[in-house]
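Hey, I was hoping to borrow your eyes for a little while. There's a protein on my desk that I can't quite get my head around. The fold is given in discrete form, as structure tokens running alongside the sequence. I'd be grateful if you could look everything over and explain what you see. Here's the protein in full, and shout if anything looks odd to you:
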Amino acid sequence: MTPDNAHESAARWLAAFDAALRKQDAAAAAELFLPDGHWRDILAFTWHFVTVSGRERIRAQLADTIGQMKPAEFRVDPKRTAPRWIERAGTQALEAMFAFETSVGRASGVLRLVPDAKGQLRAWTLSTILDELIGFEERIGARRPTGPSDTRDFGEENWADKRRKATAYADHDPTVVVIGGGQAGLAIAARLTQLEVDTLVVERNPRIGDNWRHRYHSLTLHNEVYVNDLPYLPFPPNFPVYIAKDKLANWLEFYVEAMELNCWTGTEFVSGSYDDNAERWTIQLRRADGVIRTMRPRHVVFAVGASPIPHMPELPGLDAFAGVVKHSGDYGSGAPWKGRKALVLGTGTSGHDVAQDLYACGAEVTLIQRSPTYVCSLKEGQRVYALYTQGMPVDDCDLLLTSMPFPVLVRGYQLSAAESKRQDEKLLQGLEAAGFRLDFKENDTGFQMRYHQRGGGYYFNVGCSELIIERKIGLAQYSDIERFVPEGACLRDGRTLRADLLVLATGYKSQHDVARKLLGDGVADRIGPVWGFDAGGELRNMWKRTPQKGLWFIAGSLAQCRIFSKVLALQIKACEEGLIPLRLPERYRVSQATQLASQAA
């Protein structure tokens, strides 16, 4: 298990795989995998997100795609981190990053080899992902365009004139309209712009970044800066490890200018309908001055966050409560509540942060727990992103992050969560002693799986857990509340938790609900749920063609937006160039009933 041996072994396997594919011998290629090996493809072979496990399924998927895509030239990529022996998800494997080409593009992948029963190295996991389309590459680096300063167009429009004209859309419609100007909307707009796809971002807030700027006063990112870069423009090296919300908001505003993105702020999406024959949307946008602008783009991308609509639960007697009721999305600062009593309903990240902020501002706070919650220390919460601090280029880290087939991903999360729980043992014991209900199951998968399935249900401790343990922040269980009364929450034992303020940290609805609200029941029923895993272990309707032609969704963390904005942009560009149809092929479409059954399971 030496570096030289790793490179030689990986190159030998890739050469054998390449030879089998050139002969279109899917059976021979599948024999190079372990009997229970896995292959995850993102666009490179299938133009979709597909994971298959087991030799026979791998053989069938290869047979279905290699004739059209003609994958070839598989080789260890010398520009990437060198092949090495490493442990992934509890398994020692030879890990190698490679490059190859198809009939339409250039692609990358990650190969992990382990010895079989006879000691022969076979593929435990293989991932393949499309990087760029041949003939339609991004206009970056050596391909960057020349501008007015290069061509010296004296007497003609300068750069500023052209930018004003491009953003006005006075005489044409954009090809793509992106709804939402947060990190998701800006990331996909930047990718599309570099592929020369005319894109307009519409943001209902007055300024780009307001989606962060207007959140609660003390908010700071919980993910480290190393993982959070946006496409093309890394954070400066002096940025703090954990970025404050207002600093991030200002960076997003700067990003728009630096990347020359077309954005309309103070603009609200009113309605939209799709013309199947023309393959175009008709959408209405209300500008800041109240004027309705009708546009007919070919694509609409929803980038309104994984959870944009506040969930306001029906609570018994809440109408009688005489205090102030706010959703955590509308909470600003605890300063006005100094010396007063507050209840915070919900024990996810927002609930904990709001409670800690109120306490720090001098309020008397009680957290109300609705259901068991996963808790880990902030340090342990970064464990899943540890590879971004190991010195590898961000692009290599991103490739590794996309390379885990679902069954292996689950096992990796289980091992990480188990170690986090061991490291946080003292903290967790203190919480349980204080009456806090923890959400730990057998073979627990940690916070990441909860995020992908529910969009929440966890907390990275930045100090609130100690306040609960020390009884400085009170704790009540929602099951012990009979109803709300004018003075606060009346408990079943007759006591009353008095409050002047109730903050509902009760989460948000999904992008599916937004689609239903803005595009109607027909579209919402056609596409089915958005977010959460499908039966194949891929996020539903995210970053890929949906059952509704011309409708796309992007959401997630800054890292997810950076990585998958490229994947989404390549698909839209491929549609525009006639390489793939707008409609998702039938074999990849899943009915809403099937998706709902999968979600229930």
Remarks:
- The radius of gyration is 26 Å.
